[in-house]
Amino acid sequence: MIRKFFNAIPWTFLLPVAILLALTPFKPEPHLVEKLRMLANGLLTRPVDIFDLFMHGGPILLVFAKFLIARNKTPANEN
User: Fold this and answer.
1) Which of 38, 51, 58, 60 could form a disulfide with 44 if both were Cys (CB 3.0 to 4.6 A apart)?
2) 28 lies in which domain range?
3) How many domains does the chain have?
4) Is 24 in contact with 17 (CB distance < 8 Å)?
5) What pLDDT shows up at residue 76?
6) Cis status of the peptide bond prior to 10, with omega within 30 of 0
């Protein structure tokens, strides 16, 4: 079921979305970088900041999950 979900998401949609959300806003620094820095310093405490981390980092996690699932495909008729 999870494999079917990830197979339904095309790479041509997922990669640009992941890159765009990871890098926006472009100035003064991307939110993802800012939130990861806050997480490393123990300052990620406000709910809006946690939501921002998941919103900007979520598509990247989907890319990694889709890649891992695609890499671990086994042939259908393998016994």
Assistant:
1) 38
2) 2-69
3) 1
4) no
5) 57
6) no
DSSP letter (8 states) at residue 78: -
Phi and psi for 65 in degrees, rounded to 5? -65, -45
| Domain contains 74 | no
- Which of 26-30, 51-55, 65-69 has the weakest average pLDDT? 26-30
Whole-angstrom Cα distance, residue 69 to residue 33?
26
Amino acid identity of residue 53, one-letter, is: L
Radius of gyration (C-alpha) of the chain in whole angstroms: 16
pLDDT of residue 2: 83
pLDDT at residue 48, as a whole number: 93
Distances (CA, A) of 74 to 1, 10, 52, 66, 67: 15, 20, 36, 15, 14
